[in-house]
Amino acid sequence: MTVPSEPEDRGTLTIAPSVVRKIAQHAADQVDGTTRAERRIAGLGLGTHGASAKVGGEGNDVDLVLDVALHYPAPVRRIVGDLRTRVTEEVERITSYQVRDISVTVSALLPDIAPRVR
Q: Which domain of life is it from (predicted)?
């Protein structure tokens, strides 16, 4: 019968920055008041995209830079506060990294547009 080894002796777990980025983006997209923005290149519509994130930091500390679009009109300060809270909680819960800093850029305020045809 083999005796199970202690957790410290089983190896290490490394979570790639791309995984942290996807967790942050998903968490940001779940916050009420955020919306998807149209992606355009050279005037051509290429679908939509949600929040984007960049990840930095070292060791167990991560720094996040978020770029989001919000519904218009929106209480921007409240939504950005909710974003910071939600993203921090999700990244720390899933990865056990500590979020040291979150910078948020609101790149668009987009109104709800009614469909042309009903």
A: Bacteria
